[in-house]
UniProtKB/TrEMBL annotation, chains A, B:
Species of origin: Pseudonocardia halophobica
GO molecular function: acetolactate synthase activity; flavin adenine dinucleotide binding; magnesium ion binding; thiamine pyrophosphate binding
Record-annotated Thiamine pyrophosphate enzyme TPP-binding domain positions: 396-529
SUPFAM superfamilies in the record: Thiamin diphosphate-binding fold (THDP-binding)
InterPro entries (alphabetical): THDP-binding, Thiamin_PyroP_enz_TPP-bd_dom, TPP_enz, TPP_enzyme_TPP-bd
Thiamine pyrophosphate enzyme N-terminal TPP-binding domain: residues covered: 15-119
Protein name (record): Acetolactate synthase I/II/III large subunit
Family: Belongs to the TPP enzyme family.
Length: 537, 537
């Protein structure tokens, strides 16, 4: 790779790339999480002509896609990603998987070889269409500069939905670099509001009948049903009918804390979840998928619907949960207007050694008003839901698809979406390493992200899962070393400072509290390496 | 995620997982680069019963797959990877793309949901088959424990070839955990030796005629043709017929240095490559693909075959290049037995500020006998081929597929394959960040890998590519900041030490030489952050 290809004089006229960017911004997509390569250079160059687009550089595509997920969960509209051919999209696929499970809108702009270069099977050529299809509701390749405005608008429309989804636009390099003189940007038809059309009328009617029946009913809430509006409606239904209310296990975005109606989440361990649903004869799904265990285990049922229970679905999974719940509440709880809300009752600040419990209490005590919590704490987060239930009002974003490496990138996107709100990223150590370079973007963009890495030196979740699948190993087993991160111990303070994020270590509750207070007092990103013993020894 | 699923007592009898591992090892696949999750826990547990299998833990799947690529390039046999469902495979796909382009054998073992859990569409479910198909020559899902031995043997056979390829075995969790009492491991039919059968007889005959014709011929060599045997044969042909000899631009493994017949590589910039091939009327491809530019550029031909030239292909791309060259040499150069070899003539150690040139001279001067060089130096490596041509004998592995993030993982695998040979990983800074956690595996396994990070604070290659596609930007352009890594500057010394790899910074040639000498004198991994000005300012 000896120096640059010498090329023609830079084009001064409008390019397809500029039309693409203008179309995106006109359609409201004005943030782009980018990790570009050669085939995207005209899209990069076009940024100068479109200052309304904020381009956020990431050092790895999984950071770009996870950021787009976190952004859209908070902004309620898609960001774009800018990715380099098949391998770039592949690197972003795991976090797109999480976004797909979250029902998040994302517009992937994936550069591809120029149209006449593609058949040459150059080294970076791969089946990008098949790859994109594994995570995208829609994949489209733009074949001419004249179509690029329309194609871009259509890609945004597909992302916005309803239902919101991942939309991938493949852009051959020449389609981007060709002159677009005289071409207009594409325009977006205003999206259909996620109104009654998204609801399942039959499902609503059968759910209403079930709720009136007097038989034990559980309302399983997901998607936008976990915003305040949906939670109020769910609790109105509960007050009127005696139904139990539960949130899905891994919410896309759960509004909670002081002032919001509280809701428990379906538990991750199947045995606990089965107990939560025991006795239910009608399960009403409002924006949630029918509950199943995360994995199959020997001799255990994966389906969590209690035997003999009837399932009623009032809307698409993930979509319009709050609208569906309000429709259902209007049917069965018209007379109920007020519901109980969580009070402001944070835990007292603990003292002494840092544990999963004391770390959670520190977080619960200090969580600031309006915080956005990105939760990839895995086993170390076991005590968090309870410890933060009475904290100041906040949003809680979780790992919807189980593809680890979500936390640091999603925190990036949430902070870009909500620059006036503090983002707390509660991050397990093993998972952090998949997308650790997100810290550099935190620093580069000076984002108000405070990361707590739960540094327990282990894939502790897998120690538990090993038991769950009946494959326990003695402590000195060589195989068991594959679940350890302690040799060598990762130094997250060094990793963070190496990427420009100020960082400290905390081994006591007092040190964690001090670090979090300092982070809140200073602008920009911070990291605390919270050394906790693993939950599963 | 509140604590483990409680499960049944651990099974003491033989499991499918044990049969799988035993089959792999019996077939010669005795290294596994692993990043497992719940669905692979029985495969992890089975390691204790199969101590012949070396399991190497990685913190990210792209490290596992890149390591498998580097391993196979040096061991000439596949390693296994152990990956977690679709998202795990997705994270490993970019480096599998490089392995596919390298013609490297890899056996991917991808855990999947238990058969009865799969239809439940649990959060981690995705179209893993489609994903695997984008990089694999063969994808097979094992559907019963009774078949697992045979399925595993078949997966290894498909990887071994000929031609060597990526073979993906999807293993449902229950197929791995079910008792395999009384079942035998699968056995591998001895692979067909890559003999004359892999050759193209018509191509050999037409190539021989062309070489005899007296018209200008160029022999473009790739695959195993770039090992010593192939190079000797290529040079015999050149001596006998006057043909020119060139290596493909990005070799899988090039043997070179003192004692090996030297060969120039086709250049990366199309303009230079076109000059190299100018005047050729017959292009003989021996293990190389027909040459094309890496990307398409406005107004330039992507196809590098000179107009009017005839192409002769003597073997499959990547396969049996050395065998083909020997067959061709036997046809046209039977009387030539000896060829010129490179002498031992390393450059003098330079002094003064570190530049792309002086850094290359330091590497060339100190490269130890038998070194394995993993080259992802991108622009900062411009002077390396010349500066190392007279170094002690070594192997040179390059980025075959253009999916960056290859260097640190491939160095991992090369070091595991050849524990008695020093591995030098020459690594660009931007590319390093895609798979930086490989450093932790270097430390954990105490691998003899010396990494030189060319720390130029930029995606310098893209600055060049920007010119190449005619999209130059002024120095103060906001868009241009998307090609900069300087704000904040990455501190690779902190990153390396944070993962347990001793590291120093070098700003002069003397400091780089000192650091490399120290690294050679101490066991285990080292990193030098070599601060060089970017080649493309």
């Amino acid at each position: 790779m000896a120096g640059p290809e010498t090329g023609p004089e830079p084009a001064a006229e409008t390019t397809g790339a500029q039309v693409l960017l203008r179309t995106l911004v006109d359609a409201g997509v004005d943030v782009c999480f980018a990790n570009p390569g050669t085939s995207e250079m005209h899209l990069v160059a076009a940024l100068d002509a479109e200052p309304r687009m904020r381009a956020v550089l990431t050092l790895f595509e999984g950071v770009a896609t996870g950021a787009a997920d976190g952004y859209a969960r908070m902004a309620d509209k898609p960001a774009a990603t800018l990715l380099h051919l098949g391998p770039g999209l592949a690197n972003g696929t795991a976090n797109l998987h999480n976004a797909r499970r979250a029902g998040t809108p994302v517009v992937n702009v994936v550069g591809d070889h120029a149209l006449d270069h593609k058949p040459l099977d150059a080294p970076l050529e791969s089946d990008v269409d098949a790859l994109a299809g594994t995570v995208s509701a829609r994949v489209h390749r733009s074949l001419s500069t004249a179509d690029l405005g329309r194609d871009t608008a259509d890609a945004v429309a597909a992302a916005c939905g309803p239902p919101p989804a991942i939309s991938t636009l493949l852009v051959p390099a020449d389609v981007a670099w060709t002159s677009a003189a005289g071409l207009e940007p594409g325009t977006l038809a205003p999206p259909a509001a996620p109104g009654r059309g998204a609801l399942d009328a039959d499902g609503l009617e059968s759910a209403a009948k079930a709720l009136w029946s007097g038989e034990p009913c559980t309302l399983l809430v997901g998607g936008t049903g976990l915003r305040e509006r949906g939670l109020v409606a769910a609790h109105r239904i509960a007050v009127a009918t005696g139904a139990r209310v539960l949130a899905e296990c891994f919410p896309t975005r759960l509004e909670r804390g002081a002032g919001v109606p509280p809701i428990s989440r379906l538990a991750y361990p199947g045995d606990v979840a089965r107990k939560q649903l025991e006795g239910t004869t009608h399960l009403v799904l409002a924006g949630a998928a029918s509950p199943v265990t995360f994995f199959g285990y020997p001799g255990k049922q994966g389906d969590l619907v209690p035997e003999g229970a009837t399932v009623h679905r009032v809307t698409e999974i993930g979509a319009a949960g709050s609208v569906a719940l309000e429709a259902l509440a209007d049917l069965v709880a018209a007379g109920v207007t007020d519901v109980a809300r969580a009070g402001f009752a944070p835990p007292a600040l603990p003292t002494g050694p840092l544990t999963v419990q004391t770390a959670a209490e520190v977080v619960g005590a200090l969580l600031p008003e309006g915080a956005i919590v990105v939760d990839e704490s895995v086993t170390s987060g076991a005590s968090l839901p309870q410890a933060t239930a009475g904290s100041a009002r906040h949003d809680w974003l979780t790992l919807t698809g189980g593809a680890i490496g979500f936390g640091l990138p999603a925190a990036t996107g949430a902070a870009v979406a909500c620059p006036d709100r503090p983002v707390w990223c509660l991050q397990a150590d093993g998972s952090a390493m998949y997308t650790i370079s997100a810290l550099w973007t935190h620093a580069r963009e000076n984002l108000d992200v405070t990361t707590v890495v739960y540094d327990n030196g282990a894939y502790a979740i897998l120690r538990g899962e090993l038991l769950g699948v009946g494959a326990s190993l003695p402590a000195d087993s060589p195989a068991r070393s594959l679940l350890d991160l302690g040799s060598p111990r990762l130094d997250f303070v060094a990793l963070a400072t190496g990427m420009g994020v100020p960082a400290v270590r905390a081994t006591t509750a007092e040190e964690l509290a001090d670090a979090l207070r300092r982070a809140a007092a200073e602008p920009g990103p911070h990291l605390v390496a919270a050394q906790v013993p693993p939950l599963v020894p």
